[in-house]
Amino acid sequence: MPELPEVETIANGVNERTRGQTVVSVWTSGKPQTFKTPPEEIGEVLMGARIERVHRVGKTIVCDVVRPDGQGAQFLVHLGMTGRLLVSTAETPVPPHTHLVLGLSGGKEVRFVDARRFGRLSIHRDTASSEGYGGPGREPLAISLEDFIALFRERKTPIKAALLNQTLLHGVGNIYADESLFRAGIRPTRKAGRLTRAELGRLREALIVVLRHAIELGGSSVSDYVDADGVRGFFQLEHTVYGRAGEDCKTCGTALKKTVVGGRTTVFCPVCQR
DNA sequence: CTGACATCCTGACGGC
DNA sequence: TGCCGTCAGGATGTCA
Please, which residues bridge with residue A27 across strands? Predict the structure, then answer.
């Protein structure tokens, strides 16, 4: 389940391997759910375009391209649960569930592979905003303390659900929501609007530390996530609560509890998180 | 508007 | 060994 650190790792990998190259061929599976923008339109925009930069906004991989006519556009890749964006040689067998293949001028291919088809491909055109795609919410690694506190004011939903809400902060998913709440010592079921300024300050710090540390380790490898080379990250070795229900809390030794918050499996320490 | 919940989709895994 | 039920969850749509 790629979240911010995994998406950043993948985007950086694809950027290093494709930047400056031109798209010389486009193939799509045409599976309707995968294409938020119709596949024909994606093909028209990308064919002959030069890849300027590949980066991350929230959980979305953003490919900035320039078309032969000089027009800029952005190709957006959301990996969903099981999506992978691979840079492969043309000789590498095309995996099952491949939905898009971009042939590049350097001879390699960019492939989007997604078994469960929760991923989405789309085109974002530069219209009014010269800054391009901004994502649905605020960047957790860039938001100020005051703005962070304001996001949760008056909110009656559990803090865990609020962290998963991409229109508030984007990029946080189930793993890093649980991990940052543990680090901040906050129970996931607490109402967001009831947290004190001090608690929200701790939560923001915890999120930043956890996300940065995970990025350094190349993300968490859980189920289908692999980076642009097909290499797994190592942050899962450092998970303190995610996937550890029933095991001992690494801080106090108490058995970690499992519950459901915001429709998602949630693991927390009943002693360390209040 | 806000929050709760179902839905999509397939592979992995556990139990029998 | 193999089958089947259950679970995983990001984003979206529906409903109260």
Answer: A101
Please give the class, per CATH, of domain A145-268: mainly alpha
Å from the A260 CA to the C6 C1': 16
The residues spanned by each domain of chain A are 4-125, 145-268
pTM of the model: 0.93
Verify whether residue A39 is a known catalytic residue. Answer: no
Q: Regarding the domain with residue range A4-125, which homologous superfamily does it belong to in the CATH classification?
A: MutM-like, N-terminal (3.20.190.10)
Task: Report phi then psi at A161, rounded to 5.
Answer: -65, -40
In angstroms, the Cα distances linking A196 to A150, A153, A186 are 12, 10, 11
Q: Side by side, which strands form the sheet with A60-66? A: A50-57, A60-66, A72-78, A120-125
Selected catalytic residue, list A17, A56, A59, A204: A59
Asked whether A84 and A54 are in contact (CB, 8 A), the reply is: no
Q: How far is the CA of A88 from the C1' of C15 (A)?
A: 45
What is the CA A201 to C1' B15 distance in angstroms?
Answer: 45
Is the Cβ atom of A96 within 7 Å of strand C at any atom?
Answer: no
Confidence of residue A20 (pLDDT cuts 50, 70, 90): very high
Give the separation between CA A274 and CA A190, rounded to whole angstroms: 8
* Predicted local confidence at residue A224, as pLDDT: 47
On whether the CB atoms of residues A103 and A109 are closer than 8 A, the answer is yes
As a whole number of Å, the end-to-end CA separation of chain A is 27
**Nearest nucleotide from residue A135 CA, by C1' atom:** C11
